[in-house]
Structure formats: C-alpha cells, structure tokens
Amino acid sequence: MEKYKVGVIGGTGMVGQRFITLMEHHPWFELTLIAASPRSAGKTYEEAVGSRWAMDVPIPERARKLVVRNAEDAASIAEEVDFVFSAVDMKKEEIQALEEAYARHECPVISNNSAHRWTPDVPMVVPEVNPEHLQVIEAQRKRLGTKRGFIAVKSNCSIQSYVPALHPLRAFGLKRVLACTYQAISGAGKTFETWPEMVDNVIPYIGGEEEKSEQEPLKVWGRVENGVIVKARTPDITSQCIRVPVSNGHTAAVFVDFEKKPSMEEIKELWASYRGRPQELKLPTAPEQFLHYFEEPDRPQARLDRDLGGGMTISIGRLRPDTQYNYKFVCLSHNTLRGAAGGAVELAELLCAEGYLSR
C-alpha cells in the first residue's frame, strides 16, 4: 500500500525522537518531514539533535539527513504531508495556536501535548478505551471550517498506567479511586545523564500532574453530546504523583471501591478477556494482549515488564482486598511508548482505519 506522508513537529525533544524511531519500520506511515524551533531549522536532523539524542537505538538513517523545518511554517508544511504528530515544547497558548493553524491549513494533528486536552470538541483518546469519541471530529471540523483538518490528542502518560485497568471494571460501578503514580524521569524529558540529581532520589512533586490524573479520566470516560465531550461525573478520583529514579515506565498503586463489588476472579477474567477496537482491527502498533495480569507477588516491575507488547501492553499485579477500599492492585505502562509517542501512533492508525485520515 502507498504509505501516508508524516511530519513530526517538535522532532528534537524526547517524545519527538521516539516518534521518529517508531516511523522507521512502520507499515503504513513514512517520515518525510521533521520540524522544530527556529534555532534548529535549516540544520540536518543529526546536527539539530546532536548530543541530545536520548533513544537506545541510533538515529534512523531516513531521519539523519532530513533538513529540519521551522515548525511555525504551518501553511507550507501542511502542503507536503498527510498529517503531523505534534510534540512541541512551548507555552500552552502557543501550542494551541500552532496546532489549530495546522488544522485550519487542512493538516490533521495527532498531538502528544496537553494544550488541547480540554478543548470540548477535541477527542482525547486511549484507542482501546474510548474510540467512540472520534465522532466529535465532525463537529470540530465545522467549527474550524475545514474538510480534512482536525486535532486529536492522547491523554496524560500517567493515567495510561491505571485507567486501562479500571476501564473494564466500570461494569461494576466504579465509585472511588485512589491512584498513586511513581513516574519515570523520561516523563520529564530527562535521562540520568542530564538529570544526575535523580540518582538515589525521589521527588514528591510533579507540577500539574495530580490535577491531570484526577480530571483526565473523567473526559476519557465521558460522552459525546451536541458536538462536544461531556465529562463523566464518577468515579471520585484522588491521586498523588511522585518522580522516581527509573528511566522508563510509570507504576501506579491503585485502590478502588465499587457500587457492586465483584470477586477477584471476575476482575481477573475481565482483564484477561478485554479487547479494544485496535485489537479487533489488528492495528500495527496494537498489542495482542492489551491488559496482562501477573500472578507473581513481585510483578510488574519496570525493568522487566515495561516492554511487554512492544511497550504497548498494560501490566497489572498484586490484586488483593484492602482494609479501606474493596481492592488494591499495581499497574505499569511504558510512559514514552504506550503513554506518549506509541499511544499517538496507535491513535493515528485508528484514525486511518476509521476513515478520518486520508492521503
């Protein structure tokens, strides 16, 4: 099949780098353009990224010699690609304006950024959880006055460690959730070389992260009504987010109460049998097993389990009764794959398969 021509805007940062590695052997998508800040524009990608290359594989050959474009040149870039992945590092208002400029120039934007997550007609999608939210794109296009252009976003990386595990359990009426996340340093765009202060350290604060962790699941579980997404009213969620000395992989300790308490066997069966739309469609990036439960008492572990399913599977373990809540358990997701670039690539695949992206 003829591949989609793909641009990455914000290609020099850590998530942008991950997008570029994921395009290297993609069966549907071909990286044809990289854009970044004006200070990187005009250099080859290899020159622009320099010593900041943070991936554990070399820069893909196709990307190495591409001349970096100015990400602000939305009009000219939109004419050369079928869609873009956005991973720019700018102020929220600037990101909102830039992504909307691409959309208005008829270039669809699949964004890793948080800037448009609360725009009412922008779908914030975990493909296995709320694919039905894509239908709001029609209303967004009417607002923007576009035929092809739109913005779709993925959720915060931390909620993708526990929301997928909770999602099938909504059948029992999720009432109350406490989620404590232990988040890898790559979530801050850092490595141990660039952030030596994190070695042998734990920082009990990540700016804005607890608000996102408590509110974003309610949009993901919301409903489309009159051309906007109305967030869910339940469950009540409280969270605490902590930065830990781990390179990749966000872990969550989850406590949950139900309206109608299921048995542990019922919960495990739901996890084992759950399949989302990406699994039905056999999307290239979708893991065969979306949710994997470990019976071993010391799993999941970041070093051992973050790459399960190509880094796209959610790992779960230690399900047991709790003295304050009905149950507690532990989850793990790869934060720059499932939680960031990989989740956005899977979202783009879903948009293609459902007819929202065209060449």
From TrEMBL:
Pfam families: Semialdhyde_dh, Semialdhyde_dhC. Keywords: NADP, Oxidoreductase. InterPro entries: ASADH-related, Asp_semi-ald_DH_pep-lack, NAD(P)-bd_dom_sf, Semialdehyde_DH_NAD-bd, Semialdhyde_DH_dimer_dom. SUPFAM superfamilies: Glyceraldehyde-3-phosphate dehydrogenase-like, C-terminal domain (SSF55347), NAD(P)-binding Rossmann-fold domains (SSF51735). Residues 5-137 form the Semialdehyde dehydrogenase NAD-binding domain. One of its GO terms (molecular function) is aspartate-semialdehyde dehydrogenase activity. It is an enzyme of class 1 (oxidoreductase). Its EC number is 1.2.1.11. It comes from the Bacteria. Belongs to the aspartate-semialdehyde dehydrogenase family. PANTHER family: ASPARTATE-SEMIALDEHYDE DEHYDROGENASE. This is Aspartate-semialdehyde dehydrogenase. It comes from Candidatus Intestinimonas pullistercoris.
